[in-house]
Amino acid sequence: MGLIGQIWDGVWRTVVVVVAITVFFGLLGAVVHGIIWAGVGGLYAAFFLACWWDTRHHERVKKQIEDDRARERGEK
């Protein structure tokens, strides 16, 4: 193998190693990023679910108070 062949072989191996490392760390970063954002999404979902549940509970309590007042006035 001549000098050009040796240079090409070294360049080719370097390119393969760089691409492999880039792909590996890119996938690793994507997985970590996905886990982080899944956790953030879970926190948002839990927050909005808690808000919805709280609103529902307040509506139920408000209706119960109105019913109690109506019962006290003798309307029900």
Topology:
Layout: H1 3-73
Oligomeric status: single chain
The backbone outline, from C-alpha atoms, is rod-shaped
Contiguous runs where pLDDT drops below 50 for at least 5 residues: none
- Major sheet: none
What is the succession of H and E elements?
H
The computed structural class is: mainly alpha
How many individual β-strands?
0
Total helical elements: 1
Distance between the termini: 101 Å
- What is the average per-residue confidence, as pLDDT, rounded to a whole number? 89
Strand content: under 5%
Global Rg: 32 Å
- Helical content stands at over 70%
In short:
With 76 residues, this protein is mainly alpha-helical.
Overall description:
It contains one helix and no strands. It has 76 residues and is an all-alpha fold. The termini are far apart.
Please describe the structure with a list of short key phrases separated by commas or semicolons.
single chain; about 80 residues; mainly alpha; 1 helix
